[in-house]
Structures are given as C-alpha cells and as structure tokens.
Amino acid sequence: MLRVRPRATARRRVGTAAYPVRAVAREGDHQESPAGETTVLDDTDREILRLLMRNGRMSYREIGEQVALSANATAERVKRLRDRGVIVGFRAVLNPTATGRRMVSLVDVRLSGPEASARFETLIEELEAITDAAHVTGRFDYQLRVVCADPGELDALLRTLKLKGGVVETDTRIALRTLVRRSAPAGLT
To answer: How is domain 103-174 classified at the CATH fold level?
Structure first.
C-alpha cells in the first residue's frame, strides 16, 4: 500500500493554537530574482508592495496596520522581498519642473553597430537628463526618456550622444504632458 505524506505547510500561531497558512498565488504573480529564480507573491506581499509604491516612506507599523501584521513581521516580509530581488531599491521621485527641467522628450536612438552598445550604455548612465532607457526591438536600438530645461539642452544632449555614444540616428518627440508614470510591474494593482 502506498502511503502519501501530507504536504508541509507553514503555521501561524494564534494564541496557543497553530493554523496552516497557504500562500495563494495567481497567474502572473511570479517575479524573477536577480539569480533567475522565480518568486511567488502572496496577497500580503502584493499589498505591501502596493503600499510601498504609493509611499516608500511608510513605517513598518503603518504598513502592518493595513495588512494585519505586526511591525516586526512586516519588516521581515520587506527584508525577504529585498533579499529575493523583488524590491530593488527606494528613491526620491523629483518633480522635473521644480528642478528647472520642464521639457520631457522621447528619443529613439539607432547605433552605428553592436560594438557601440557598451560605449553608449556607459555614456547614458553618466547623463542625468536621461531618466529612463530601454533596449528595444524594431528599427531603433534604444528609447530614452529625457528631461531637459529647454531645446538648447536637448540639442546639446543629442550632439553628445552622436559624438561620444556611437549614435547615427535619432527620432525625437516632445511630450506635451505625462499621463501615467509608475514603477509598478503589471499584476500588482
């Protein structure tokens, strides 16, 4: 006769009794860690991430109140999310207008060849006017989101990319307004 062992589950202590706790995973709730491992996010993890994306300065006590955990349990969850590479950092989000940079542009970039990629990527890391960069498919190699003070600064940036970054062609569009700006991956909202 074949014996089947019950699957081990984590237990949460409530008073003196322990109750099984199961993480409920939904399709698409897997995150890849830096090591390439898949991480399953349960409902509590997703809610903690939503709260931190809205306000990265919330205390563990405040988050815990929202997700029915103690401050210590919340801190441990956040630490695990950071260790697994789900949370990769915290940062201040600046208002470009307040810093004197009012002109947002989207710049498509085509490089001279594959050998220019490393030089280009090193250069854009140094240029603070570039707020986002993506390696893309299609006719162009990269798309940049650029925030400049005026057309003169944008022109100087494009010249720098062409002179020092191996760029042979650009296609630039000026954003009239930004409708959505978020750092959340799909599936958390």
So the answer is: Alpha-Beta Plaits (3.30.70)
